[in-house]
UniProtKB/TrEMBL annotation:
<keyword id="KW-0808">Transferase</keyword>
<keyword id="KW-0472">Membrane</keyword>
<keyword id="KW-1133">Transmembrane helix</keyword>
<dbReference type="Pfam" id="PF06580">
    <property type="entry name" value="His_kinase"/>
</dbReference>
<feature type="transmembrane region" description="Helical">
    <location>
        <begin position="12"/>
        <end position="30"/>
    </location>
</feature>
<dbReference type="InterPro" id="IPR010559">
    <property type="entry name" value="Sig_transdc_His_kin_internal"/>
</dbReference>
<feature type="transmembrane region" description="Helical">
    <location>
        <begin position="42"/>
        <end position="64"/>
    </location>
</feature>
<keyword id="KW-0175">Coiled coil</keyword>
<dbReference type="GO" id="GO:0000155">
    <property type="term" value="F:phosphorelay sensor kinase activity"/>
</dbReference>
<feature type="transmembrane region" description="Helical">
    <location>
        <begin position="111"/>
        <end position="132"/>
    </location>
</feature>
<keyword id="KW-0812">Transmembrane</keyword>
<dbReference type="GO" id="GO:0016020">
    <property type="term" value="C:membrane"/>
</dbReference>
<feature type="coiled-coil region">
    <location>
        <begin position="142"/>
        <end position="176"/>
    </location>
</feature>
<protein>
    <submittedName>
        <fullName>Sensor histidine kinase YesM</fullName>
    </submittedName>
</protein>
<feature type="transmembrane region" description="Helical">
    <location>
        <begin position="71"/>
        <end position="91"/>
    </location>
</feature>
<dbReference type="InterPro" id="IPR050640">
    <property type="entry name" value="Bact_2-comp_sensor_kinase"/>
</dbReference>
<keyword id="KW-0418">Kinase</keyword>
Amino acid sequence: MAHIPLRRVGTHGLAWAIFIAYEVSIIFFTSTLQRVYWWEYLGFYLLNILLFYVNAHVVLPYCFAKRGSPWLLLLLLPLELGLYIILQYGLELFYNLFRPVPKPLLFQQKFILSYLWRGIYFFMLSTPYWLVRRTIENTKTISRLQVERYRIQKEKAELEKDLVKSQNAYLQAQINPHFLFNTLNFLYNQVMDVSPKASEGILLLSQVMRHALATVHEDGKTELTRELDHIRQYIALNQLRFQHPLHLHLQAEGQLQGLRLPPLLLLTLVENMFRHGDLTDPDHPARITLRQEAGTLSFCTRNKKRTSYVRSGHRLGLENARTRLLNTYGPDGHCLGIHEDERNYTVHLQINTI
């Protein structure tokens, strides 16, 4: 049942009170005074008000609906007026049971025509009310559609703007792969005899960059084994960057061949360890575990929390990973959980539909 605001009920009640007072005052000043009880007016006006709202909220909307027909009004209006006259006659008979002097009643032409005119009168009153109400509803619908269209156009413009920004960023960041790898190969050959460690770093960097620029499949995914090799190269490259050794164990189990997932997804979680974890404590080494079993891929990183200052915004990579997972696998196809205590920080990713 639709909720009717109290303010609207009050407004309609006030309008009917003014209308009834107007009609009663006309009868009082222009007609011969007769003994009429207040409850008689109550019953008669309740029937009139019922006719008004049934016509405005049921009959006319049904006849002029999209699937309705205005010709139905020629059938429904006589039925509506006939029922109204019968109810008025029944109400008069009921009132005669309580009147000190019962009113003589004959269901004849005079009685029928008087209430027929009365019914047509309230039908004519309800029709403008229905037209105004319908116009207001149509105006609200048009305004709502215009607001919705404006919102869609605004979102479309923002998407197009973001697309242009992405295209510009892509073009600005795009580097000719041949130039990049030829340059790294030149640097590798130049420093190989001078500094084997630096040359090894250049070689690892070349391999990491080659993986990052590798072409993905049409579904936007790459092989899991290549992602695992990329993680190993990334770990080895970071081992060269620091004077002290990094304590990190990588373990992969299960059948990984033939599996694919979004590129650089797992690396994002690994990179989060290097940026914000303490990997220098041999008593609490960081761990990376990759396991595949029963169609489910489980990837877990666990590291000691760094006690030194870590700049804010460190969860941006994890939020980006959440967005990519949601877009690729949906809310039911994966689970990314984060747990931390005073010492350790753990990220556990499970993909069910890999």
